Amino acid sequence: MASVEQLRRREGVNLVQLEADISSIRQGSSIASIALPDYVEHTEGVTRVGALSAEAVIRDYESAAKEIEAMGTELIDAAQKCEALTVQVHDAIAFMRETAAGYRDEGRKIFKRIEECALFTEDVRKTCEEVKRRMKDVSVGESPNEEHAMQERELTGIAAKVSVYEIPATER
User: What residues contact residue 171 under an 8 Å CB cut-off, 6+ apart?
Assistant: First the structure.
């Protein structure tokens, strides 16, 4: 508003020059560089002011429409990035499932080994007790027939494979 008031106060404003300046600026401006869209055309007989006003409005609308389309392009790019990320997430989930299955298999193997070791340890303990008992019975002086009868008892594990006679005489 201040510039308008200054124009009124000044004496000797050349209106012809002012109009020429405005026309030269308008032709070189970005507004003039935007062509009218194909979907509109001037109606015959419209005044210059009406045509310019209509052009200004349609250019604003066209500019907004292009901005909206640009947002759509950005949205498509974002959707493609999301799809790529989704693929990566599915790959990561598949890897995690494979890893978890591998851990379960390894856990199952270790579980079995521990139980086998526990059974083996128990078998060794029983065998040692049986061998000790047989050694004690032999050293007390049982007759050979009783010893033979003991051997015929069903032994399990390592005890079934070890005989008292395999133990050195110094240890009996």
Answer: 135
